[in-house]
Structures are given as structure tokens and as C-alpha cells.
């Protein structure tokens, strides 16, 4: 970082507009003196170099791609790191206290950077920005100039006063267009109204059509299909941060998928906090008349004649190349709530060749009483019934899950029930975390009574058990030939620790080849050696080694 702000870079204005968007004009032009001198003046508006720091889940990563794209379209250049940026956009995660602390702990550094670069502006968005908590934000994040809720992210460029730069390329109206059709739905959790107007569902298509999504990969793409969450899991901050469920219109999603296929993408992951409830909030249409009401547990909704996830994946799978192969060879979706995992979806997964043989189905706990306290709305019996059905329909499907240990009141016996569940299901992968109380959630009113040491011990025990199970699941692939979508050239060191002791170490790549990694359709991470030109291609490999977290394979001639 240089000591002084470059003189040509003016501080960014911060327009703290509340609404409506698009009424803010550009910042006042420099006072003009003698017009004959105009061509000798520095550029009227120098644009900031930006850095987007993304924490959290795939939804945040997808949102960041959109924000970065909007900034690029406004003419801004990316900075290589936070230290050299004039605009830092922090896309936060609030799922656990630790995630929030990461950003709170950077406030001092950001302050110091601002001292050396007075034109530096910091925008904080993502799940830590909640309307109910606006007042506290400034205190917690003193280095931040502008807070945007996740649903306000499409306004980023306007709020920074950069819209005039876009206007020059004729996109301002288009980029933020669609805001007028905002949805004012609400979610109520307990007695708290959580929902706020949200515009993402309406603005995404405009951003996509304008080519304003800076995708991080040219191989695999995120495709958001439903924003927000209507579930009321008592421990979870997401409904408070992201508001009620809003499904994107069916045809807009299929259009985005078609464009991704045309651009050469090999994999699409449909995104939503609960993709299984996609479509329930859309208007019924005659063309979806065959979609019958189907809700497996809990409150019944009239879902008839509305598109659902099954319909959507069939439509995307139905995009075919001239020779009849799926135009997108790999289709995935996250996250599925067990409550809404319908037979229609299971059938679509089994029948659509592009849908990958992997399902992430968070269970959270193996004990019904804990699940009840968590507000998960299913029992272990229901969960296992759904799992049996999907395993029957899609043999060898890989299953991953999320688990919370040490939730309020979790006894040793209840924790043991979770271990037994892991032994019974034999997951391919488990994402586990210790319960972290989130202010404002219903569970924050329950005593957080499992001591930190017990939480840690339970977490370690669970991870150790799963490591053995995962290793065994991976060993089942030894000697088999499988398809890998190669997606990266990897630095040498990241290979070796993925291979278990006694499983052999990473083979050094031969001349002309490098270390590569990719994923199988079952979402297994695979390391291999090969030409860099394999990146982005589907390669056939034979599995030579299996560790608990990754496979190692060698290319076979196809
Ligand atoms: N919508 C998804 C994912 C939500 S967040 C779902 O329903 O599963 C991802 C995971 O974070 C959750 O599945 C849960 O396991 C974990 N999580 C959420 N809130 C948490 C909290 N307060 N403490 C610890 N883990 C939490
Ligand atoms: Fe949170 Fe539950 Fe919604 Fe997942 S389904 S985002 S855990 S409230
Ligand atoms: Fe975190 Fe928000 Fe995702 S809380 S996990 S970034 S939905």
C-alpha cells in the first residue's frame, strides 16, 4: 500500500439512500472553469479498484459474483487484494459467531488502511446485515461506510454513486431495472417479523441478460433459484438475514441455464437455502397442471399447478446438444431440506441423466427430541424413509449432511444417537459444527447449557467416527473407472495430505503433465496428473488410492 492516496482517485461518495433506487444522480461534476482546458483535466471520475471478500456459503459466493460483475460493468477494476483496493466489499456470513468474529477482528486493519488511503471505502453486506439490527452495526463494524442487506446488493453501484459510469455504456437502467416489481412478503419466526422487501428474485435475470455476473469459474456455475428461507429452524439466523423465500421465475432460470450451456459450462449447481421448496410462491399456470400437491410433513401448502424443483431439473436436463446429450452434463442442487424431498424430485433425479448422483441432505441431529427443539419438523424415521427411497431410486448415490453438536439441552445419550445415525447411514461426507447461539433466533432464548469443552469433545468424536466411515466409503471406489470433471491445476502440497498413510503418496507428474484436481459425479475430490489442457474437460480415470477426504487416480485412455 502506498503512503498517500493516488491523487487522481477521488473518495467515493456514499449515498445513504433508503429508497427508491435509481433516483440518486451522479456526484456533482467538478466545477468547470475555462472549457478550453477540459481536455487537459484528469478524468472527471476516477473509478475505484475493488476487492470483494466473501465468507460463508455458495449463495454468498454467487452473490459476490454478481456484485463483482456490477462493479466491473461500471468500469471499476479489480484489486488483487484488500490492501491495494479503494473499495472493499465484505460479503459476510453470520451462521456462527466465529464467522462474524473474522470480520469484526479486521476492523482495526481496515481503519489503518483508511488512514493511509483516505479514498478507501468499505461496504459490508451479506448475512450480518439485518434490518432489525441496523443500529448496532456501526458500533460492531466501525470501519464500514455503507451497510447493505443481502437483498440490497443489486443497489451497490447506485449507492456508491457509480451509476453514471454505467450510464456511459448504457446499462444503468437495465442493471437495477426490475426493482419496481419488488416483493413485500414477510416471514414470521415466533412473534418476530423477519421478512423485508427483497429484490434479488427480480433483478438477477436483468443482471444475467446484461452479462453482468463475473463468474469465478468457466467450468462450473452457481445458479440461484430461490432466495431466503421460510423454515424456522430455531438455531438459524438465515431467515432473519435473508428474509422469506422468493422463487425466481421458471423460464428465467432455464434461460440462464441455456446461456451457461452455450458458454461452455459443464456443471451447474442450483442454489437455495431450501431448493426443495422452489416454486411454491409462484403463480399457478396451466402448463404445470400435472404438478400435484405434495408436502411430506408439517404445514400443507397448495402446491398444485406450480413448478417445483423436479420440473425445473427436468427442464434443464432437457436442454440437449445436437446429438441428444445433456447440454449441461452435470446438474447439482443445494440445499435440500428433508421435509420437502418429494417423490417427484426423487423420480426426476433418477430419470435425468445430467443430475449427479449426490445429495446433500442435512440431518442436524440423530435424536428426535433434539430435532423437535431445533424446529426441524421431521423425525429420524421420516429422514431414513426418504433416504431409503432415494438410495433405491439412485443406487450408489453419495449422501452428505450437516450436523450440529451440543445444541441446547443435548444430553450425552442424544449425542450418541447422532453417532449411531452416522454409523447407520454411512455418509460420504459430514459437515459438523458446535452449536453457536445466534442473537435474535428462537434458540437464543434457550439456555446454551452444553459446556464448550463437551461441545469440542463431541465434535472431535463425531469427526473421528466420520473420518473412518468416509475412508471406507472412498475405498469402495478403488480400482474402478470413473468420470472426473477436471477443474483445477493444484499446487503440489495440497495433494499429499489427502492420501491416507499407507495408501501411497502422490505420484510426481511426468514431463508435460501437472497435478490436477476435479470432482466425480458423486462429488468426490480426485487428484490426478495430466496435461493442463484437461482443465474443463471430463476425463476418465482409474482410482488408485483412496483417502478419507479424497481419491487419487490415473487417466485411462477413452
Ligand atoms: N439451508 C441449509 C443450510 C443452512 S446453514 C439447511 O437447511 O441445511 C448451513 C449449516 O450451518 C446448517 O445446516 C447447520 O448445520 C449449520 N448451522 C446453522 N446455524 C448454526 C448455529 N447457530 N450453530 C452451529 N451451526 C449452525
Ligand atoms: Fe436455516 Fe433451517 Fe432455513 Fe436451513 S432450512 S437456512 S437451517 S432455517
Ligand atoms: Fe452464512 Fe448466510 Fe450462507 S449466514 S452460510 S452466508 S446464508
Write a concise synopsis of the structure shown.
The chain has 558 residues and is of the alpha/beta class. The chain is built from 17 helices and 20 strands. Strands 2-1-3-4-5 form a five-stranded parallel sheet, with helices on both faces.
Can you tell me the residue ranges where pLDDT is under 50 for at least 5 consecutive residues?
Answer: 1-33, 165-197, 497-505
Tally of strands: 20
Task: Provide the residue-averaged pLDDT.
Answer: 85
Distance between the termini: 51 Å
For this structure, the CATH topology of the domain at 1-215 is Rossmann fold
CATH architectural grouping of the domain at 1-215: 3-Layer(aba) Sandwich
Largest sheet: 5 strands, parallel
Helix content: 25-40%
Overall shape: globular
Structural class: alpha/beta
The top-level CATH class of the domain at 1-215 is Alpha Beta
Model description:
30% of the residues lie in helices and 18% in strands. The chain is α/β, with parallel strands linked by helices and 558 residues long. Among the domains are: 1-215, Methylthiotransferase, N-terminal domain (Rossmann fold, 3-Layer(aba) Sandwich); 477-555, no CATH class. It has a 5-stranded parallel β-sheet, with helices on both faces. It is globular. The structure holds S-adenosyl-L-homocysteine, iron/sulfur cluster (SF4) and FE3-S4 cluster.
